[in-house]
Amino acid sequence: MLLDETKLLTVDSIMNGYDLVSKLYPFIPSMSIWRACEYAAYKRYSLPEPILDVGCGDGQYFRLVWPEINSVVGVDIDVSAIGAARDSGVYSAVYNTPALDMSFSPESFASVFANCSLEHMDNVDIVLNKIWDVLVPNGLFLLSVTTDKFLEWTTLPQLMKVVQDSDVAAHLLDSYKAYHHLVSAFPPNIWANILRKAGFEIVEHVPIVPELLGRSNLFLDTLWHVPIADGSEFGSVLEPYFRGLNNFPDELGRIIRALLAMETNWPVGSGAVFLVRKQGAKR
């Protein structure tokens, strides 16, 4: 179901994002593709400061999207990212804590940003309540999430079904969900209802990574995370191979543009970006 607040991206906006994002992840196609679509959506908006970045990672993507922002605090559960985030110069402070345990003062942030993090959280309703609490009245919350199509379009497991190896198909899909700790992949209208229930008004919804690009991207990402005999992932084989190809990021960009040019169903994506606004008085 198409939301009334839905706005669509353009091929050029995604490709402009890819040209920048691919410099961060030049030989990891699935990261470049997904982040390019998010970038195209995010650049539609300005976030008032101070900002809370929930699931901040190393901070490099935040810097790429909003290089002009000075007042932002980061939170991440991944201890391996915390050092890089603190050294990045992006954040005034970085906290290594689950979003569930955030303890900021009420109404201490003008906006909150959550880049592809909510779908990995087991208690998303509680996290949304915490985000509502820390926002000022009418504060903005900008987020990206996976949709139900993220699982429906996982091409490698689908291929295993076609060749009638349902056990391998189920194993691949289960392993992929476990790797990402993907606990929430809802249709956009369900995400919208979850956000409204938490006290937010939907300002805009932007579908990202439509079907042709989405299926291709999910094939690459699923393949990337297939375990191999030495205990690593198949990505450890693919990345050096891609590095050895001539002009890989630029030529991948041409393929992405071609896939987008053939797309016929832009309102349906494997991900979604929402801009929402806090409603209501202090609880």
UniProtKB/TrEMBL annotation:
For this protein's source organism, the top of the classification is: Bacteria, Pseudomonadati, Thermodesulfobacteriota, Desulfuromonadia, Geobacterales
Identify the InterPro entries for this entry.
Methyltransf_11 (IPR013216), SAM-dependent_MTases_sf (IPR029063)
Domain Methyltransferase type residue range list = 52-142
Query: Which keywords describe this protein according to UniProt?
Result: Methyltransferase, Transferase
Tell me the superkingdom of the source.
Bacteria
- Native species: Geotalea uraniireducens (strain Rf4)
Q: What are this entry's molecular-function GO terms?
A: S-adenosylmethionine-dependent methyltransferase activity
Tagged with keyword Methyltransferase = yes
Can you say what this protein is called? Answer: Methyltransferase type 11
Keyword Zinc in the entry? The reply is no
**Gene Ontology process terms (BP):** methylation
